[in-house]
Specification:
This protein has 18 helices and 19 strands. It is an alpha+beta fold and 534 residues long. Keywords: Signal.
């Protein structure tokens, strides 16, 4: 099989266009060998513009339609692979970065991909200034200066200038996000309306160079991808149909009957039940999404670091994972998720009731105290909250549970009105700074601060941790940078009011004749391009 992942540029014959939307209304028993049918919840998508989309499902679909300048290595998180860019280097002052663009890549339109497409795509992200723009704007780019700072000096050379000396490792990891997707400038700008840089058109069309291109998107119904005839793909899958099936029970029934090839949203109980079904197999991958208990240090009972430590020693992490979460989460206690560069995967805390009680006594609470604990109302959060409540009760902390919809809980936390709270945090881009920044860097702790990162919500500010985070971010040597992040995490787990508990695991359930599905820590790197179907 020839795929983009192997960087081959041979051209496959164009596949005749056939509308599969009518097939979305039919049962898919014995799905055709050239059609991959996936049941998935698709209702959180708002756009398929690679420089605007910031939802997980949309990012995944975009990742199958566009190539990025560089891509995270699926096996080694400390490495990025060449993609559109075949090589890159930094200037002596670490303020100018030169990327050589691979020759022979073509967009689905047939247009050749050049350095100008890559430069324009990055400039477009900055000028549109939508949700993901901060990933690249943090290097000093503005709509006013980006034309000067990001340029193609010839058809194969992209030059990026940053406002300040920058670690090439940090820059390259950021460029592996969707903001590094290269779009077809000529095609997109031909569909520009009222100066929108083609955004309205690109919401529901594609202009990429990866294996697949968009055939149709019907919101909350179906997405159909067809093969990009210029991608050099020679695999067996001609079309991928994603069907919006909300109910996991319906997904389960369709999978067991053979009406679909893949189910993406089965519950932990359903996944456990299909383990004995020889016609179904499971693929698991940890996602860059972590769950933690946050303590608001403005509350008098939660201001002492000894209390933070006591809470962390009180929780039965493994027991909650084994009895509630099963294979859907793993114990993880660092702010950098496993699968990202520099992740600390050590288990620092296990339940130790005596140690927790001793720390509470040292903090002046030998008999514990009462506190409120907010959590999301959707499972598995209520069950986790009840387990944590029972754990805390063992050391004398009486937690009153307050359940709310996701937006209610987050609104309360963003207003700094919580005491304790169990919530989740998803990583925005493939670099440890993506989480170090929101968990640590809080320069202004006032209520009217301009920047209000995750750490600000809990009134936490630690100058030593901030200095360590900034030093790690700016370290020029890639290996030294990773070591600094490891040291930062080792300090953070003890010196912060965040009890990080679990990391989510995504599971794909598929028929036993399906192979080659790729899952990655970030959804933008999940891929169907290497799928085979026997």
């Amino acid at each position: 099989m020839i795929t983009r992942r192997n960087f081959l540029a041979s051209t496959a014959a164009a596949i005749p266009a056939v509308s599969y939307l009518s097939m979305a209304q039919q049962a898919f028993a014995d799905t055709p060998k050239n059609l991959l049918v996936v049941a998935q919840q698709l209702d959180n998508m708002t756009t398929l513009d690679p420089h605007v989309s910031f939802e997980a499902t949309g990012s995944e679909i975009i990742g199958n339609m566009y190539q990025q300048l560089v891509s995270p290595n699926p096996e080694n998180p400390d490495v990025v692979d060449a993609d559109v860019a075949e090589s890159w280097e930094a200037s002596d002052d670490d303020k100018m970065f030169t990327f050589k663009i691979r020759d022979g890549i073509k967009f689905s339109s047939g247009n050749e991909l050049t350095a100008e497409d890559a430069a324009w795509s990055l400039r477009r992200t900055v000028k549109l200034n939508k949700s993901p723009a901060f990933i690249i704007s943090q290097f000093g780019f503005t709509p006013e200066n980006v034309d000067e700072m990001i340029q193609a000096t010839d058809p194969r050379t992209l030059v990026i200038k940053t406002a300040e000396p920058t670690s090439i490792g940090f820059l390259v990891y950021c460029l592996s996000a969707n903001i590094g997707c290269v779009a077809d400038k000529q095609t997109v700008m031909a569909n520009e309306v009222d100066g929108d840089m083609g955004s309205a058109w690109l919401d529901k069309n594609s202009a990429g160079s990866a294996t697949f291109m968009l055939n149709t998107w019907r919101p909350s119904d179906a997405v159909v991808l067809t093969v990009n005839p210029h991608a050099g793909y020679e695999g067996p899958i001609e079309r991928v149909m994603l069907r919006h099936i909300v109910d996991p029970a319906s997904q389960m029934l369709m999978l067991t009957k053979g009406d679909i090839d893949i189910a993406r949203n089965l519950t932990a109980e359903q996944l456990e039940s299909v383990k004995s079904d020889d016609s179904i197999k499971l693929l698991r991958k940890q996602q860059a999404s972590i769950m933690q208990l946050s303590m608001n240090v403005s509350h008098d009972k939660l201001s002492d670091p000894k209390v933070w430590e006591a809470v962390k020693w009180a929780i039965d992490y493994q027991g909650i994972k084994d009895n509630i979460l099963g294979d859907t989460y793993e114990v993880h206690q660092s702010f950098v998720p496993n699968g990202l560069p520099g992740a600390l995967n050590d288990t620092i805390f296990t339940q130790d009731i005596d140690k927790a009680k001793s720390l509470l006594a040292e903090a002046g609470y030998p008999d514990g105290f009462e506190i409120e604990l907010d959590h999301y109302s959707a499972q598995p959060y209520p069950d986790i909250a009840q387990a944590v409540q029972a754990n805390l009760a063992e050391v004398g902390i009486k937690a009153k549970l307050i359940s709310g919809e996701n937006r209610q809980v987050l609104t309360k936390m963003r207003a700094r009105q919580h005491q304790m709270i169990i919530s989740a945090w998803g990583t925005d881009y493939f670099d440890p700074n993506a989480n170090a920044d929101p968990y640590i860097i809080n320069k202004d702790n006032s209520d009217d601060a301009t920047s209000k990162p995750f750490v600000w919500r809990s009134h936490f500010q630690d100058d030593e941790l901030i200095a360590m985070a900034e030093d790690a971010r700016d370290e020029k040597d890639p290996a030294a940078r990773i070591e600094k992040y490891l040291e930062l995490q080792k300090k953070f787990v003890h010196a912060s009011p965040f009890a990080i508990m679990f990391q989510k695991t995504a599971t794909v359930a598929m028929r036993d004749n399906i192979d080659g599905v790729i899952l990655a820590p970030l959804p933008s790197n999940n891929s169907y391009e290497e799928v085979t179907k026997t």
